[in-house]
């Protein structure tokens, strides 16, 4: 048996966070992934809240979960209502889950001001509801809402509410830092007192991230003997979110030697899955699972990690399914360039003229406003050009763009003409587009297709414009970042100019040029 169980509330408390909505089918898919990953409890929702959650539990019963136990969430019975007659408690039982989690009030202020009842009735509500659910054969988790605030206000009152849950037969009492304002030292101290005063019922922890201490507080509780951690994948949840399980899990497993999941390597992919399914962007700087969690940019760091990865990495990235990234920028040393060149199959010597020239060119261009971090394609071209492993596929003679807006209600027209040379042959093409950049992209492709039919495979996936230096207002330098793809891979290219059309042109041309260079080099290999 595990010494600490993982209780996931992504499907309940996670959905209380702004911008995190899940359909019933999304919830089912996430539940399956959580089960496969080895989470012990999955809180699916609150049946007393909405029809979607009622339906979820009906469908989830058919899931054939291999490991996790499903929990339905709700509150204690209402004040002055018999527990058998409480509609919300009935729905909790009708959800037919092996586990039911109920929350109740620990803070006297909440009892008198929010519930507007007496301390005695509140304790009866907790005790009766736990007992009733136990009598119906459920494993009962009792979430002590506002426990730490309640304890700081009156330890005796807060402990008496826990005792009421224990008397009602709760299997675990979970201390909640509902407002997220408690410090790890306080959590530790209070948890130790709970352990001493209620020794026969295991305690767990449920924290919120309002002081960015959700994870630290959960770890402090485990240090004090906590047996369950409640949290969400990627920390989604009410306000600033809940304790982030994608951080807690590797901390427990890799730093504290507490085995909680069988395949930690699946962590990053689980994190991306939940982002994707909820249509949220991935948080690049997320510890352990973020894209940049093991990305090295400073030249000195890159030099060191090449010699010894753990010189700047606190764990092996592969242990959580992540990988080391090396970035090239104005902060690079030759080591960054050497690694990139090696990856391109053109190894370079440290101290060689080529390595020095490439590094100098990167620094010069970054000073002009280029950024190679997200433009690996442009960096690849820069290296090939410097090493004379590059054949120019075409020469631009001229391009022209126009945008015509009619006052009589006609659709505006965006037009581009492009004149290029491939060897001695000229091609002069005009095309229209949704905007001038689109027209330019279309005209260029049309002009090239006769010479390079393979460019049919390339499409433009993303286009971003950023002002490099804002002080020149509309004459400021712009950086355009383009992502192109061929269905198998994608690559970023960058262009910089005071003119956004020219910056776009540079980035688009590099995107197509790189594709042609790669094809040519693959053909030679
Ligand atoms: C800390 C947490 O995250 S707890 C979970 C919070 N999550 C949610 O609220 C999401 C789901 N909630 C809902 O769908 C709705 O709020 C419902 C269906 C549960 C309740 O809706 P309504 O009956 O319209 O009540 P409303 O939301 O306005 O007010 C909550 C009521 O619950 C009572 N209540 C609050 N906590 C408890 C408790 N632990 N035990 C019993 N009653 C409680 C409040 O006193 C209030 O009743 P009152 O107005 O008679 O005093
Ligand atoms: C129960 C719960 O979600 C909280 O107290 O934060």
TrEMBL record:
A single GO BP: isoleucine biosynthetic process
Amino-acid biosynthesis recorded as keyword: yes
Protein name: Citramalate synthase
Reaction(s) catalysed (UniProt annotation): pyruvate + acetyl-CoA + H2O = (3R)-citramalate + CoA + H(+)
Pathway: Amino-acid biosynthesis; L-isoleucine biosynthesis; 2-oxobutanoate from pyruvate: step 1/3
Transcription regulation in keyword set: no
One Pfam family in the UniProt entry: LeuA_dimer
Alphabetically ordered keywords of this record: Amino-acid biosynthesis, Branched-chain amino acid biosynthesis, Isoleucine biosynthesis, Transferase
Pyruvate carboxyltransferase domain span: 4-268
Molecular function as annotated in GO: (R)-citramalate synthase activity; 2-isopropylmalate synthase activity
Similarity-based family: Belongs to the alpha-IPM synthase/homocitrate synthase family.
E.C. code: 2.3.3.21
Originating organism: Haloferula rosea
